[in-house]
Amino acid sequence: MTTAKTRIRIGSAPDSWGVWFPDDPRQVPWQRFLDEVAGAGYRWIELGPYGYLPTDPARLAEETGARDLRVSAGTVFTGLHHGPAVWEKTWAHVAEVAALTQVSGARHLVVIPSFWRDDKNGAVLEESTLTAAQWRDLAGQTERLAREVRDRYGLRVVVHPHADTHIDSEENVARFLHATDSDLVSLCLDTGHYAYCGGDSLKLIETYGERIGYLHLKQVDPEVLAQVRAEGTPFGPAVARGVMCEPPHGVPALEPVLAAAQALNVDLFAIVEQDMYPCDPDKPRPIAERTRAFLRSCGA
Fold first, then answer.
1. What per-residue confidence (pLDDT) applies to 6?
2. Are the beta carbons of 153 and 99 closer than 8 angstroms?
3. What average pLDDT does the segment 216-240 reach?
4. Which residues sit opposite 149 in a β-bridge?
5. DSSP string, the chain
6. Is the pTM of this model over 0.90?
7. Which pLDDT tens digit goes with each residue over 12-65?
8. What is the C-alpha separation between 101 and 154, in angstroms, rounded?
9. What pLDDT was estimated at residue 68?
10. pLDDT (tens digit, 9 = 90+) per residue, 254-269?
């Protein structure tokens, strides 16, 4: 008989190796990421930014299979609050990622809202709050995207609340959930981003458990967080200052979060993501190994 704990599948992602972009000289080569994530004891990975890992399905299958790795999800950034005007451009990118995600055997597509300020230089790109009309477009276009992704590629859309986006705080996450169809749209709860934005992951799981479709496991350093909040620091520079930290040294505590997720008694991926861009190439693997051991101590 399958227990609740065995229904949580632990993985990691290129993000935990300091990978934010398809190609960047400060990032580790994709071969090294695959070697090290497998060596650290993980069997599930995400694709990361499209183009970082091989986009040829046969090559991707060969490289992951040789290391006993499987893909849990692909990821896209979208600006769906801009409404139907951005649909065609959005869909062209989503379809590309969804096709590779599907053929890799994954069943989830992580959808991240676009940033309202530049994550590198902090330039304000648009208002940090949405109008009522933009909220309607965000909800409606997300449902449209989820329906198309499901019908064409057999994937489940999980929307990722994220710092410096319009789906961030407890209030905005609740508003988004209330505005979208639970049969179409689930959440990718990132424990670090939600804490960064003042949210309580445990409370979210207990209140909206039926909407939790995927997890990203991450912690924030509360002292660094207080500093960057006080200074209004954009997310990218905050990461460079170490706002995301190695478990179990930050918040939220992951053991009760995992226990609450396990109590939902559903199949969930819990993918470790410790934002570290940019970072020394020798830094990620030891952290990944320690984090995997810590999660085992939590029963995951």
1. 60
2. yes
3. 96
4. none
5. ---SGGGEEEEE-GGGGT--SSS-TTSPPHHHHHHHHHHTT--EEE--STTSS--SHHHHHHHHHHTT-EEEEEEEEE-GGGGGGGHHHHHHHHHHHHHHHHHTT--EEEEEEPBSB-TTT--B-S-SS--HHHHHHHHHHHHHHHHHHHHHH--EEEE---TTBSS-SHHHHHHHHHHS-TTTEEEEEEHHHHHHTT--HHHHHHHHGGGEEEEEE-EE-HHHHHHHHHHT--HHHHHHTT-EE-TTSSBS-HHHHHHHHHHT-S-EEEEE----SS--TTSHHHHHHHHHHHHHHTT-
6. yes
7. 999 999 999 999 999 999 999 999 999 999 999 999 999 999 999 999 999 999
8. 10
9. 98
10. 999 999 999 999 999 9
How do 219-220 and 212-217 pair as beta strands? unpaired
Cα(13)–Cα(276) distance, rounded to whole angstroms?
12
DSSP string, 3-40: -SGGGEEEEE-GGGGT--SSS-TTSPPHHHHHHHHHHT
Instruction: Spell out a b/e string for 253-262, using b for 16 or more CB atoms within 10 Å of the CB, else e.
Output: ebbebbbbbb
Q: In this structure, which amino acid lies at residue 279?
A: C
Q: How many residues does the chain have?
A: 300
Both tokens assigned to 178: 């209330």
